[in-house]
């Protein structure tokens, strides 16, 4: 079975083509284009325009890369929730159009769960706790009783958005996370920042306000601030992830989301797991960031469990939460 998956929840327009071969996930193509700026952040209407502009090129590139044509595709899948309304709509409309024109079955999937399922498929983790740290989302998710339950999450925004916002304020452009990571490597001194874990949840707003105040005093180097920022916020994430592992008794931690590309976060995850006799996993970078392959893979799982959408019912839901989905494929 061959599925073509479309990702458009935020800054990335992606098309992945995935095959189910002998029960395994085989990625044939994973093409994407990321909306970028030199300076400043992103405006939803502009990002949607970007997706409209690149969608045909990315679709064509994915088919070429996979060496298939639309006739070979058995299923179309798209990111249905959660995300930015304007950009979700672009992916949904592309998916509906090709499903209609080429008479293919259609499924809509949840983006956060797709991060978890692609990690399970491509890493050896069978039943992990997922630390999902991306632009818009920060959640600790694990499977219990037919649902992916949220054990902890951000009380304000996603960690990546805060990293990007700070980077924007100090003139680094978007995306900011990788630039902060590079600067942090040259940091020498730890500067104390607020540490905000509330039960199983985290919040970032106060930390970033404090960070910007410190930056404005010009008493600290940008490198030291970036280093201290990473040490602080990643320790918070690892703390709640560890507590979720202790609570559920699970022995695997899976990282997902663009922020999980960060080497320091990966190192902290490995250390924490080692100390408790568990193991940390993360797929390669192209599957950590938003991508179409994970949408295609979850499309296959969902379709095989009997889920499908009529074109008239194919909508988007920017606010649907991970734990509202019944997981009937596990
Ligand atoms: P996603 O929303 O999952 O596609 O991830 C995008 C987010 O990941 C953006 O906020 C980026 O700044 C962030 N990001 C990407 N690479 C890194 C990195 N190496 N370190 C920290 N954040 C990163
Ligand atoms: Mg994501």
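Q: What amino acid sequence fits the structure above?
A:
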């Amino acid at each position: 079975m061959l599925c073509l998956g479309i990702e458009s929840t935020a800054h990335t327009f992606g098309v992945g083509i995935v095959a189910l071969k002998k029960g395994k996930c085989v990625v044939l193509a994973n093409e994407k284009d990321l909306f970028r700026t030199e300076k400043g952040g992103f405006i939803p209407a502009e990002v949607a325009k970007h997706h409209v502009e690149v969608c045909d090129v990315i679709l064509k590139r994915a088919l070429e890369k996979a060496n298939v044509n639309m006739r070979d595709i058995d299923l179309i899948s798209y990111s249905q929730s959660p995300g930015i309304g304007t950009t979700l709509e672009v992916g949904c409309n592309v998916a509906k159009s090709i499903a209609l024109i080429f008479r293919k079955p259609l499924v809509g999937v949840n983006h956060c769960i797709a991060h978890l399922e692609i990690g399970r498929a491509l890493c050896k983790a069978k039943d992990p706790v997922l630390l999902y740290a991306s632009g818009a989302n920060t959640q600790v998710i694990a499977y219990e009783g037919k649902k992916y339950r949220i054990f902890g999450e951000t009380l304000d925004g996603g960690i990546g958005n805060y990293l990007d916002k700070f980077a924007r304020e100090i003139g680094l452009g978007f995306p900011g996370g990788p630039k902060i990571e590079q600067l942090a490597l040259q940091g020498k001194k730890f500067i104390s920042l607020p540490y905000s874990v509330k039960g199983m949840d985290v919040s970032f707003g106060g930390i970033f306000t404090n960070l910007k105040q410190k930056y404005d005093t010009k008493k600290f180097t940008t490198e030291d601030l970036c280093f201290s920022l990473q040490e602080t916020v990643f320790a918070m994430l690892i703390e709640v992830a560890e507590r979720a592992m202790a609570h559920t008794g699970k022995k695997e931690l899976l990282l997902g989301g663009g922020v999980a590309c960060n080497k320091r976060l990966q190192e902290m995850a490995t250390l924490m797991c080692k100390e408790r006799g568990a193991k940390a996993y993360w797929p390669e970078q192209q599957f950590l960031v938003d991508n179409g392959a994970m949408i295609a893979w979850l499309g296959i799982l969902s379709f095989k469990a009997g889920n499908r959408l009529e074109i008239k019912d194919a909508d988007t839901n920017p606010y649907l939460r991970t734990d509202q989905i019944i997981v009937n494929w596990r």
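Q: And what stands out in the fold?
A: Residues 10, 12, 134-135, 160, 163-164, 175-178, 181, 257-259, 261-262, 289-290 surround adenosine monophosphate (ligand 1) (CB under 6 Å).
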